UniProtKB/TrEMBL annotation:
Residues 32-128 form the ParB-like N-terminal domain. Pfam families: DUF4032. This is DUF4032 domain-containing protein. Signal peptide: none annotated.
């Protein structure tokens, strides 16, 4: 397979594009092949990539994926955000780097398309997001409710404390934030997408849905007397709040917003005040 001509185009950051275009409305487009040359950016990892979507520090995983692609093995679809005719990688930066290096034309992807929101953001929301980004160095976590950024910051601070205990040294907040984003937030968002929760909350961002599940997790953990964990919280949220069992037909999703407020009046009373 011939190698592709190296591109000098810098990798775009989805966070910057999202903020510029005020992206929040989104539609799940399913899994299908997308043009590799239209993959231009990354969600939260643009700084780790060199122009042309090359890895700054190729690792063992990169070479393992490269060998698999050269042998023609079928790998899991990447996950991308689509904006116009461009794509931004949420999961699969290594696979995209290899695909571009090998000159592949198409790659299978799970696609979530974003559109500009018609709603105007409040000054409070913009200020909270800017504060969060300055403290953590994280971009592209676009919540639509200011309080969510306070929650995310608290999660990261707790994560930093656990890292310090494990490593036996002081951990800077930005280092902890990056680890939290990669090890906690990104897998959680992937699970949220896989459960189809974006369809259930069409007016909310993935960050908002993550925050709702974490609030539900806190409530259930308090009730049970132990930390139930994210996976159990996600499943409970899907079944109790969304009212959706695995395999339930689409029609039963209708009326979710009306049920949501009622069910959560006990669980998350702040919803009534938003």
């Amino acid at each position: 397979m011939p190698l592709a001509k190296k591109s000098s185009q810098p990798v775009k950051a989805f966070g910057a594009i999202s903020k510029k275009l005020n992206l929040s409305s989104r539609v799940y487009r399913g899994v299908h092949p997308i043009p590799v040359d239209r993959i231009v950016g990354s969600v939260g990892r643009a700084a780790d990539l060199l122009p042309g979507f090359r890895l700054r520090n190729p690792d063992v995983r990169y070479y393992r994926i490269r060998r698999a692609m050269e042998r023609g093995e079928i790998l899991p679809p990447i996950i991308v955000y689509k904006v116009g005719d461009e794509y931004y990688v949420l999961d699969g930066n290594h696979r995209v780097a290899v695909a571009k290096e090998l000159g592949m034309e198409f790659i299978d992807a799970e696609v979530i398309e974003f559109f500009p929101s018609e709603r105007r953001e409040s000054k409070t929301l913009r200020a909270k997001r800017a504060e969060f980004e300055n403290l953590t160095g994280l971009k592209g976590i676009d919540a639509s409710e200011p309080r969510h950024y306070d929650s995310f910051l608290n999660y990261i601070k707790d994560y930093a404390q656990r890292m310090e205990l494990f490593l036996g040294r002081k951990v800077p907040l930005k280092e902890a934030a990056l680890n939290w984003f990669l090890c906690v937030y990104t897998p959680a968002v992937q699970a949220i997408v896989e459960k189809g929760l974006e369809e259930a909350f069409p007016e909310k961002s993935l960050a908002d849905i993550f925050a709702y599940i974490m609030d539900y997790k806190w409530y259930k953990s308090q009730k049970e007397g132990y930390d139930i964990g994210f996976d159990a919280a996600l499943q409970g949220f899907v079944e109790e709040i969304v009212g959706k069992k695995e395999g339930v037909e689409e029609e039963k999703k209708k009326g979710l917003v009306q049920r949501f407020g009622g069910i959560l009046e006990e669980v998350l009373p702040w919803l009534k005040r938003e």
